[in-house]
Specification:
- About 35% of the residues lie in helices and about 25% in strands.
- Strands 1, 2, 3, 4, 5, 6 and 11 form a 7-stranded mixed beta sheet that branches. It has a 4-stranded antiparallel beta sheet with strand order 8-9-7-10.
- Strand 5 and strand 6 form a beta hairpin.
- It has 10 helices and 11 strands.
- Bound molecules: adenosine-5'-diphosphate and the ligand N[C@@H](CCOP(=O)(O)O)C(=O)O.
- The ligand N[C@@H](CCOP(=O)(O)O)C(=O)O binds next to helix 5.
- Keywords: Amino-acid biosynthesis, ATP-binding, Cytoplasm, Kinase, Nucleotide-binding, Threonine biosynthesis, Transferase.
- One of its GO terms (biological process) is threonine biosynthetic process.
Amino acid sequence: MEKIKVISPATSANLGPGYDIFGLALSEPYDTITLSRSGGGISISVKGEGANKIPTDVDKNTAGVVVREIIKDFNIKEGVKIEIEKGIRPGSGLGSSAASSAGAAFAMNELFNLNLSKLELVKYASLGESISAGFPHADNVAPAIYGGFTMVVNYNPLEVLHIPVDFEVVVALPDIEVSTKKAREILPDSISLRSMVNNVGKACGMIYSLFKKDVELFGRCMMGDSVVEPYRSQLIPGYLEVKEKIKDLVYGITISGSGPGVIIIPKEGKISRIKEVLDEVWACPVYHTKVGTGIQILERN
Ligand SMILES: Nc1ncnc2c1ncn2[C@@H]1O[C@H](COP(=O)(O)OP(=O)(O)O)[C@@H](O)[C@H]1O
Ligand SMILES: N[C@@H](CCOP(=O)(O)O)C(=O)O
């Protein structure tokens, strides 16, 4: 194989009480990543959403870092050409950096037939997240690679659990930029026992709800975070207003990842009214989509 093209999906991490643990693959938007064998070295080109904000230096691009590490570990003598077409806005809270990291790991595995497991792909992809977030959080790259809903139950060693799920979501992308690195810096180093009890309880409710296919319980528990949202909602003007105005139209709403993206679990038949509120407050892009199945191969030759 000389070339492979994959689509790597947006992902919504944290999902309220699951900070750095929970993640959901979405069906759209997505990045398109093409890797080709080349004469030597690693080259990167980026086009599409926010391309001008994305470095093409190998050591500063999440996909470049992942490819560099795999080449080193497997002593690959050939070069790799990386072509990234961004469909996910950088700094959106939809795992834009993660989509490139995960797509690059997946594509390298196929291009050089490395037989890496999904867990090994998550490990490599999370190295890219160190570049964008300053910490190799795996809660975006895991759902991009596994699809569905994932839980990073341990970081050292890495352990990921996966639940295939399929329900509709609405994602709004206010025209605000929030860097994950900055959105992590504003969080406290420690929390109260009451906050821990609250978040663990809500997280348990979310996991139980997936096995019972109870989207109302999922959404209600998703809204129960008392650790991260109080800080990060301050970075998203209009968030509390939207939350109040749509409370009777949704099962749940929370900040997607580090924001400013917002993920909503809609009640049946309420989509158009939800979109009206989002348009009134933010007048921003809105995706009415569903949980995705992860990275897909588009072409290989
Ligand atoms: N391939 C890439 N795709 C997206 N962002 C990248 C990439 N490589 C590096 N970055 C940097 O990562 C940052 C976006 O990541 P982050 O702040 O985590 O937001 P997001 O929620 O979109 O992942 C941007 O500052 C961008 O410059
Ligand atoms: N757990 C991370 C998730 C960041 O998600 P992103 O989509 O904003 O990159 C965090 O909250 O810092």
